[in-house]
Design a protein that fits this description.
432 residues; Adenylosuccinate Synthetase, subunit A, domain 2; Adenylosuccinate Synthetase, Chain A, domain 3; purine biosynthesis; 4-stranded mixed β-sheet; 31% helix; alpha/beta; 13 helices; 20 strands; single chain
Length: 432
């Protein structure tokens, strides 16, 4: 049985949670391998809507083991809040596993994240202010706090004291904020230690053993390809590897064990935060997409920037991730448009780019080259087979498939779990 990686193929908010949920009944483990509570998944099951921020979407699938792996940074209070909220709604959360090697977000990093962003002013990155970036920076600087440190208070105290020795200098002398006390940090970190102790595991060993037993493991990326710290639109990116390669370093499962990579591509494009966005629409079409698609952040509530589909970044995502199957989400949002532009290339000061410019300045100045496709007016939210879609909706999907160079295996036609058209079995062996 396969190890499958599921990634966003744009700037996030593509509907990865729904795709994970769609696969959930056919997989044994769902693994979050990067990011923290700075991105959310919304999953709709029947008349119930679930907004998940830190937990893997697989926690909503009975029989599935959800895993927070070593590549994630964990806000303990958020984790407990989410677990309590789901338990109150009757969801069994007892199978959750948390890597002992995952890093913990200490309160001083949330403070630093917010004051640093404000200090940058017009040069701000657009972070969520939840301490994600500073915690990853601590990890790279080898001064981070890991989940396992919660169970050795002496070590934990030493690490917090060492971190605050420099961070308080920044807070007090640069940002004119009060110093953070060691005891208040320890109190917050230790408050939930016993609650999560039964969940703390060697998750890398657990996942490899599961694959050895022939079980199916799904790796669910937070954020998306264009937000990857190495391959995204740097510096307007997240602080982790949100591409398929990150699934291996973020979980301890080798790349030779990955069978399939599923990319999630919204039928149009959105992004949050700062940074270049060639197909962005700041007119009534952009507002139409925002309203029809309910494009407001699951975690932040921020309105998302909206634009037409961009297959240049789609091809880039396919190449960087090795995508074998593409899921097109929110096709229903485009219903009612007379024509639907698709960006097939960029014009950069008179030079045509068929692929992503490697130079950040070129990408910043990129202007979309559009191909106009005919729209449709029929309601497609009740369609359950590809043939039921209006001809122009079918043509739109097939054109995206052709332009991005990878097969479309699922088309989403609404927010509900059942509102998906399956063209190919994504759990079948890769050679099928």
């Amino acid at each position: 049985m396969p190890a499958i990686v599921l990634v966003g193929a744009q700037w996030g908010d593509e509907g990865k949670g729904k795709a994970t949920d769609l696969l959930g009944s056919g997989v044994d483990y769902v693994v979050k391998f990067n990011g923290g509570n700075n991105a959310g998944h919304t999953v709709v099951i029947g008349d119930q809507k679930y907004a998940l921020h830190l937990l893997p979407s697989g926690i909503l699938s009975p029989g599935c083991t959800p895993v927070i792996a070593n590549g994630v940074v964990v806000d303990l209070a958020v984790l407990i809040e989410e677990l309590d909220g789901l338990e109150a709604r009757g969801v069994d959360v007892s199978k959750l596993q948390v890597s002992a090697n995952a890093h913990v977000i200490p309160p001083y990093n949330r403070v630093l994240d917010k004051v640093t962003e404000r200090f940058l002013g017009s040069r701000k990155i657009g972070t969520t202010g939840r301490g994600i970036g500073p915690t990853y920076a601590d990890k790279m600087n080898r001064v981070g706090i890991r989940v396992q440190d919660l169970y050795d208070e002496s070590i934990l105290r030493q690490k917090v004291e060492a971190a605050l020795a420099t961070k308080n200098q920044l807070l007090v002398k640069i940002y004119n904020r009060r110093a953070v006390e060691v005891e208040e940090v320890l109190e917050e970190l230790l408050r939930h230690a016993e609650r999560i102790r039964p969940m703390v595991k060697d998750t890398a060993l657990e996942l490899n053993d599961a694959l050895d037993r022939g079980e199916t493991v799904l790796f669910e990326a937070g954020q998306a390809t264009l937000l990857d710290v190495d391959h995204g639109t740097y510096p307007f990116v997240t602080s982790s590897n949100a591409t398929a390669g990150g699934a291996c370093t973020g979980s301890g499962v080798a790349p030779t064990r990955v069978d399939r990579v599923i990319g999630i591509f919204k039928a149009y494009t959105t992004r949050v935060g700062e940074g270049p966005f060639p197909t962005e629409l700041e007119d009534e079409n952009g507002q139409f997409l925002r309203d029809a698609g309910h494009e407001y952040g699951t975690t932040t509530g921020r309105p998302r920037r909206c634009g037409w589909a961009d297959v240049v970044i789609g091809r880039f995502a396919q190449r960087i991730n090795g995508i074998t199957d593409m899921v097109i989400t929110k096709l229903d949002v485009l219903t009612g448009l007379e024509t639907i532009p698709v960006c097939v290339a960029y014009d950069v000061q008179g030079t045509r780019f068929e692929e992503m410019p490697v130079n950040q300045s070129d990408f910043h100045h990129a202007r979309p080259v559009y191909e106009e496709l005919p729209g449709w007016t029929e309601d497609i939210t009740g369609c359950r087979s590809f043939e039921e879609l209006p001809v122009n909706a079918q043509r739109y999907v097939r054109r995206l498939e052709e332009l991005m160079g990878t097969r479309v295996s699922v088309v989403g036609v609404g927010p509900g779990r059942e509102q998906s058209i399956v063209l190919h079995d994504m759990l079948a062996p890769a050679a099928a």
